[in-house]
Amino acid sequence: MTTAQGQPTGAKGPPPSPAIALWAVAAAFGTYFCMYVFRKPFTAASYAGGEVFGLPEKTVLVTTQVFGYMLSKVVGIRVIAELPPARRALGLLVLVGAAELALLGFAVMPSPMHAACLFVNGLALGMVFGLVLGFLEGRRTTEALAAGLCASFILADGVAKSVGTWLLDQGVSERMMPGLADLLFVPPILLFVGMLSRVPPPDKEDVIHRGERSAMDRHDRAAMIRGHGLGLMLLIGVYLLVTIARSVRADFMPEIWRGLGVEAAPETFARSEVLVAFFVLASNGLSVLIRDNRRAFFAAIGVAMVGGLMMLAALAGLRRGSLDGLTFMVLVGIGLYLPYVVIHTTIFERLIAMTRDRGNLGFLMYLADAVGYLGYVVLMLTQGLIPTGPSFLTFFSVICGVIAVLTCLSLAASWVYYARRTSALKPPVAEV
Length: 432
Hints:
about 425 residues; mainly alpha; two-stranded antiparallel sheet; 16 helices; globular
């Protein structure tokens, strides 16, 4: 039995099994970490001097892959919301296999067909996150598990570029490098998907604390969107903003490092992202200690606002000359990933638990992802707005400054919206 806020009443049940939690987070982390190596190594190459349809080759390649990824998110709004749990593991293997075949095609297909191969790669990989997240949601430990999952793509982004740079340094061509990097990670991803398939579903205590997660038909999806209106629009708006800045930082990291006066060696990418991942993992994973779903929801909005303020502080320090390149990249990375990850791990999870709406986390995440990546595609298609020379750091700084301000304003508005909407709910019953 639960209160109107989705809080459990009565005596506490047994604590969640640490062994199951460790198994689940290791399987999810490993699966998504490997997936990133199927997606990001090509961004370590500069493709200098190359053109496709009269445009810089790297800009076209990034845009093409992101467009496929974005389209996959749109399709995933329905597919992830409706997919039965028993089909998730097989779905993961099919998608990863298609992504690798696309990269092998990228190595051998003539221009501009090689860019179309990256579209297929993005289309295949866009639904991987939702499938992995489905194994983790609706548990008392969901935030910690999802934080581990999100830490994988923070860390893997740098590692994927390091692997790509290392292969280039060994003499592998820019076209061959992505497919070869992927082949190195086929055995581990098979292992981790096998581990995911053995994660047990949420137990009875999980359902009491977080609500039952069910597949959603189109009526359920429409009802959830209507029921949250402006609040959901504001949260998805924040996700759109940080997705744009995070994606620019990820896809053009070599250019940003050069603008900071740092040569982008293989270890450079991994060093900054390890620090970012550690901080974001710790700050988001600790939200499992807040049992009250409403308090955890508003605490998560506060954490996201801290991220926006950190970005502004980093930009101010860079302008004054008081920060070195590594410190700036770490602070901006933390500032971007705090709101990005807290939406993945806590805000949507606790929103469902607090309201007890019929639904699942995958639907909300793919709705936000579709909007976020659509915004990035629009930016990439406006090619003249993306300088690739010495002015790229200035461009990135302006984007981060504007997005940090708008993020803080949108989060403050969403706080007010949900505070008013939930103020009439009964306080949680004290547990004995």
